[in-house]
Amino acid sequence: MTRTLILTRHAKSSWAVPGLADHDRPLNKRGQRSAKAIGAWLEEHGAVPDEVLCSSAQRTQETWALMALQMEAEPQLNLLEALYHAASSQMLALLRRATGRTVLMLGHNPGIAEFAEAMVERPPDHPDFSRYPTCATTVLRFDVEDWKEVAPGSGHAEAFVVPRELTD
Amino acid sequence: MGLPDLERAVSAVGLSVIGGFHPKPGEGPTPETRTLYLLGPTPGAFWPVFVSSAEATDNRADPMDRWSSRVLDALADELGAVPAYPFDGPPHHPFYSWALRTGRVHASPVQLLVDGRTGLWVAFRGALAFDTVLDVPPPEPIPCASCAGQPCLSACPVTALTTEGYDVPRCKDYLTGVGSRTCMTGGCAVRAACPASQVSDRHPAQSAFHMEAFLGR
Question: What one-character-per-residue DSSP string does A22-89 give?
Answer without folding.
Answer: GGG--B-HHHHHHHHHHHHHHHHTT---SEEEEESSHHHHHHHHHHHTT-S--PEEEEEGGGTT--HH
